[in-house]
Amino acid sequence: MTDLLRELCEAMGVSGEEGEVRDLILKHIRDHVEDIRIDPMGNVLAVKRGTGQVGLRVMAAAHMDEVGLMVMGFDSDGTLRFKEVGGLDARILPGTRVLVGSEKVPGVVSWVPPHLNQAEETVPIDRLRIDIGAASKEAAQNGIERGDRIAFASTFTELGPTVRSKALDDRAGCASLIKLVQGDPFPFDLHVAFTVQEEVGLRGAKVAAQRIQPEVAFVLETTACHDLPQDPDEPDQTTITALGGGPAITVMDRSMISDPRLVRHLVAVAEREGIPHQFRSPQHAGGTDAGAIHKTGIGVPSAVVATPCRYLHGPHSIMSLSDWENQAALLRTAWMALTLSVLER
Ligand SMILES: [Zn+2]
After folding, report:
1. What is the pLDDT of residues 153-178, one digit of tens each?
2. What is the 3-state secondary structure (H, E, C) of 216-284?
3. CA of 286 to the centre of ligand 1 (A)
4. How far is the CA of 223 from the centre of ligand 1 (A)?
5. Known catalytic residue: 199?
């Protein structure tokens, strides 16, 4: 199953240019769903038929896009000006390897070597450049255009019980949702949405939910994990989730409060089946597609199950494989046990 994750993570899908990821997802779900379509925004929508025992319109969403950069212009020396797409920290960019545009031209974000760097300051993003080895503006423009997306150049690597990759956010969620779609039918029809443009404001999910009009929604995500150092003498007050602690159930983030009935259901099935799980610490920022979905139509009870990732939105995030496998296991179990009584007040 890590082959599927690798394939998805290594594809390029910076917000607004999710086509490469979309093609892979279509390939993997096509034989397992009905009513498959690409909506006007670029979301992949499909229905996995259920056994019909439970009459609920259930939506499950994972976002296809990843944070990255966009070409803004060309300098006479052959370097590229750029801008961030989604939430990126400029401090991590200098020295980072990137791939530019559909031709995937390799480059590196400029940086000042230690011999010269006396300032110890963070260079603002508008003063950084991407060096693709071109000697002139004309050479740089060969195969690259303004507006082209730029992704981190990072290979997917297994490191013991973890994996290291770019774009685990949210290809890990996409891979989990693909596995769930490929598995046994649920008691209800599952309306799946692989969404675009989450990283720039939950935009694809908004229109996907408008079309699906779900009565319940689940979002498969990754979430920040800041669990180091773990030395007991250095308590880290900012811990949000812990790697290896199981998939994280969101209670509240900046974009939504999870429906408490769904949270109770998720916790109950996890405890009954012995599936590791944790709560995502609620005092932190961050939002997910659920932030858009739960406010659609007359309102949609929603919940988020997220795999913790260290170094999120960077070129090399680290995720526990068991946390990721348990994301799908927890949702599979919760969906098999989902009844109308779960939503009784
Ligand atoms: Zn995400």
Report:
1. 999 999 999 999 999 999 999 999 99
2. EEEEEEEEECCCCCCCCCCCCCCCCCCCCCCCEEECECCCCECCHHHHHHHHHHHHHHCCCCEEECCCC
3. 9
4. 7
5. no
Q: Could you list the beta-strand ranges (E) of 54-210.
A: 58-63, 68-74, 80-85, 97-100, 105-109, 130-131, 149-152, 157-159, 162-165, 190-195
* pLDDT recorded at residue 242: 87
Q: How far is the CA of 62 from the centre of ligand 1 (A)?
A: 8
243 CA → ligand 1 middle, Å: 17
pLDDT tens digits, one per residue of 174-232 = 999 999 999 999 999 999 999 999 999 999 999 999 999 999 999 999 998 877 777 66
Q: 76 vs 111, 138, 139, CA distance in Å?
A: 18, 8, 10
User: Contact, 286 vs 224, CB < 8 A?
Assistant: yes
CA of 170 to the centre of ligand 1 (A): 5
- DSSP code at position 66: B
Give the ranges where the chain is alpha helix by DSSP (H).
Answer: 2-10, 19-29, 137-140, 168-182, 203-212, 260-273, 290-293, 321-336
CA–centroid distance, 11 to ligand 1, in Å, is: 16
Span 4-61, pLDDT tens digits: 999 999 999 999 999 999 999 999 999 999 999 999 999 999 999 999 999 999 999 9
DSSP structure class, residue 123: P
Q: Note the pTM of the prediction, 2 decimals.
A: 0.95
- On average, the pLDDT of the chain sits at 93
The strand pairing partners of 63, in sequence order, are 195
Quickly tell me which residue has 């195969």 as its tokens: 143
Look up residue 179 and give its two tokens: 């596995």
Task: From the candidates 198, 199, 215, 221, give the one annotated as an active-site residue.
Answer: 198
Find the 142 Cα to ligand 1 centroid distance in Å: 33
pLDDT at position 83 is 95
Q: Which residues contact 18 (CB under 8 A, 6 or more apart)?
A: 42, 64, 65, 196, 197
CA gap 249, 251 in Å, rounded: 6
Buried b (16+ CB within 10 A) or exposed e, 139-165: ebeeebeeebbbbbbbebeeeeebbbb
